[in-house]
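Q: Sequence in, structure out?
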Amino acid sequence: MTTPTTPSRVLVLNSGSSSVKYQLLDMNDSSRLAVGLVERIGEETSRLKHTPLATGGEPREQTGPIADHAAALKAVSEELAKDGLGLDSPELAAIGHRVVHGGLKFSAPTVVTEEVMAEIERLVPVAPLHNPANITGIRTAQSLRPDLPQVAVFDTAFHTTMPEHAARYAIDVETADAHRIRRYGFHGTSHAYVSRETAKLLGKDPSEVNVIVLHLGNGASASAVRGGACVDTSMGLTPLEGLVMGTRSGDIDPAVTFHLERVAGMSTDEIDTLLNKKSGLVGLCGDNDMREIRRRVDEGDQRAALAFDIYIHRLKKYIGAYYAVLGKVDAVAFTAGVGENAAPVRAAAVRGLEELGLAVDGELNAVRSDAPRLISPEYARVAVAVVPTDEELEIATQTYALVRSGA
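A: Exactly. Output:
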């Protein structure tokens, strides 16, 4: 008689308004069995790209209309089944969902119930672009595997440890509380993973380390992490606050919105579109790809150079601010697409901060690698690290730990 094996696979779903990213992981060794993306859902030109890593097979691609998220997940299930990894597999332990906004109620991964879904829906007004898509993904997965635990892992959860003096805005308390206006922060799964991996890189326990994490992608955020807990982060009520990003302005005088309404006659929706989709790097120079911006800078393009300088200036301000918040800093960690790959950004962000103990070694900084690594010289008081983020692994790890605990 054979002993049944404990299910060890976790399917991670990241459902956007017109896309679904997915990864299937085996938590026995954290290996990836398959990865894929469905994009342009609801269009005639929908595309599914699936890579079966477990079998070492070639990526498979299909194009053609995929009507909705239900059809998308059905197509994903069929692709997985071709590799013997279907959603009906008894080895599948749970499905972990990225949910952008969990408010104050959810500070940890949570098994989805109707009460949980109702709260995620109540948070739609503060996350109108993200939570509806996350809800759709969860509902669709529930319909395909109603017997399987569905776990919500919240982008905001890691930041719920922020003290009130960091989380509250200085506006009327009753108004703020009535409308849930406070700083929530985002990219939490990335900040949690990277801060923990940075401590490991230093050979220390996360409780012993203070880290400034710089998650620099098209969306960008910074966090101050003291002893493994977030004490401040740059994004606020929405992902618009903070650093200069690919298409978002980041910090801006709120009176700019009133000014645009009065003087330019712009509507609320037009201002929202301006600040979220037509600002940041793309607003400054017409490009939001840092590789293209650096190419233009190297060719002497003054508009690109100014955009780069504004981006770096804001980044330095946050490094300095979070150094002050933490008092003592053990490491500054760069992560995400720009943070991991743009050596000029890392060098420029640290340049001039030598009095704070920060420095970058040019040769180490120029090395391209997928491994966590230090790029600071040995004499630097504060380590500067490049730590590739892995939000899918973090979601899978949190999901698996929760279902194994029986919570």
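The chain has 15 helices and 14 strands.
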